[in-house]
Every structure is written in structure tokens, then in C-alpha cells.
Design brief:
The chain is α/β, with parallel strands linked by helices and about 260 residues long. It has one domain: Rossmann fold (3-Layer(aba) Sandwich), CATH 3.40.50.10320. It has 8 helices and 7 strands; from the N terminus they run αβαβαβαβαββαααβ. β4, α5 and β5 form a beta-alpha-beta unit.
Length: about 260
């Protein structure tokens, strides 16, 4: 099925604030961060029958290009391309995200309400201070979400797994695994292109190191690089703090030679 032929509606606020549960939740500092780092994985999850969502921590009001209102419209368009079940914004200050009891509680409340099994967090480091602060904020909020007395309106919940995105951040730590997004890459790129105010004609953005080429070409080359690591065309890398478990050596996919 071509997912672009059946775009999902972005839920209305009334629907979002109900007890809608999802399977995979990406939490990112800024609108467009999730599309850049894990958009292909989110599309793949939808194709596998899972419900997905994104929580953007800020509105992007400090961005050099565009405005918060423009980026909100772009995020809604990208949500439709990605077929998200939920997209929300926590409204933390752009370029001023902090990891405090108040911000942990606010994010934990969303986690308890949506009850994701897998949470995708930012890379554990980065040039933008919001990114590395957000990475620890997400981990801490996932723990706090399991404390019974934090927000009694929703049942305690801790995700089974936290994954950290690694695209453009391999200099910080080596990826634990890479997701094959060969069949999803062009749709990922279409979602990224929804952010024309940020990327059209740009040579650099966020954590993407410039090489003189148009940004969209750099994104393709980065995905191709990670794809080669697992012998496919395009990939998205992730880091986990836990050691991965293997039960059957015959199921190891990437050949040594």
C-alpha cells in the first residue's frame, strides 16, 4: 500500500486529550527534528500496523528561518505524510529547554496518557543545547511517568524501551543498530520537504554537517551511509544504553564478508 495515497488525519485536540494510546512515540526538541532523524522508522512502524506519534517540545520560535506559526502548519502537513495518530507540542521555550521537576512532570503526563511501548529520544549529544538536554529530559520523564503520585489522572506507565536517534551524531557514540528504511526513504524525504521555510535552498540545518551540497542531498547521502552498514540502500541509526539480546545466531542479518 502506498501510504501517501491514504494520509491519516491529524487528531483534533479533543481526540488527542482522550486516552488515545500509541505504540511508538518520538519526542524531539523542535518541529522537524523527528522527521530528520526517525521519519523513516515511524513510517515503517505504521506500515507494520503500529500507531505512532510525535511530541515536539518547543514551537521553534527562536529559529533563524520562518516563524512558530509557519512551523506549526508545516508540522501538521508532515504529520499527515507520516500518518501519525498523534502530534502534540509541549510549548517549552525554544533554545531554553531545561530538565527540571516541572518539565519532567509535564512530559511524564503526556507519556502516561499515550502509554507508548517504545519512545524515540534525541541523540545523547549535539551542537544545539536543546538537543542534548532533551535527550536526558526524555529519559527522566519516562522514569517519572511510572511514579504513582506524579499525575493521578492517568495510570502510571513506563515505556518498555527508549531509543536514541543517531543520524548526523555518530561522532558521539557508535550506533547500536540501524533500521532499514529503503522502502520508506522517499516518504521520509517528502515529510522533511514539508518544512520549506527551514530547508528549501539550505546547505545546513541543525545537526547536519554541511558539505556544500543542498541539504536534501546531504540527507539522502547520510541515509545511504547508514544503509551500507546493514547492506541496504537507506538506513536510520539508533543507540540504546542496554546491550542487545540475540537468541538465534542464525538470525544475525549482516554478513561479515
Amino acid at each position: 500500500m502506498d501510504v501517501l495515497a491514504h494520509p491519516a488525519r491529524v487528531p483534533s485536540p479533543a481526540y488527542v486529550w482522550g486516552m488515545t494510546t500509541i505504540d511508538v512515540l518520538a519526542i524531539a526538541a523542535h518541529r522537524d527534528d523527528a522527521e530528520l532523524t526517525c521519519g523513516g522508522t515511524l513510517i515503517k512502524a505504521v506500515r507494520q500496523g503500529h500507531r505512532t506519534g510525535i511530541v515536539d517540545l518547543t514551537q521553534g520560535e527562536m529559529g533563524t528561518r520562518g516563524s512558530a506559526a509557519t512551523r506549526a502548519a508545516e508540522a501538521a502537513a508532515a504529520a499527515s505524510v507520516l500518518e501519525l495518530s498523534v502530534r502534540e507540542n509541549l510549548g517549552l521555550p525554544d533554545a531554553g529547554i531545561t530538565n527540571t521537576p516541572d518539565t519532567r512532570r509535564a512530559l511524564a503526563t503526556i507519556i502516561r496518557r499515550l502509554q507508548p511501548r517504545v519512545v524515540i529520544a534525541p541523540a545523547p549529544g549535539g551542537r544545539h543545547p536543546d538537543h542534548h538536554v532533551a535527550a536526558q529530559l526524555v529519559r527522566d520523564a519516562c522514569f517519572v511517568a511510572g511514579l504513582a503520585k506524579i499525575e493521578p489522572a492517568f495510570p502510571p506507565h513506563r515505556p518498555h524501551k527508549i531509543l536514541h536517534t543517531m543520524t548526523y551524531r555518530e561522532d558521539i557514540v557508535k550506533p547500536t543498530f540501524v533500521v532499514d528504511i529503503t522502502d520508506e526513504f522517499e516518504i521520509k524525504l517528502k515529510a522533511i520537504q514539508c518544512y520549506g521555510s527551514q530547508f528549501d535552498g539550505a546547505l545546513q540545518a541543525g545537526e547536519v554537517y554541511p558539505n556544500g551540497e543542498p541539504l536534501y542531498d546531504v540527507i539522502r547521502h547520510q541515509a545511504a551511509h547508514y544503509g551500507t552498514l546493514i547492506r541496504c540502500q537507506y538506513g536510520e541509526p539508533y543507540f540504546t544504553s542496554e546491550t542487545m539480546r540475540i537468541d538465534d545466531l542464525m538470525e544475525l542479518h549482516v554478513a561479515t564478508f
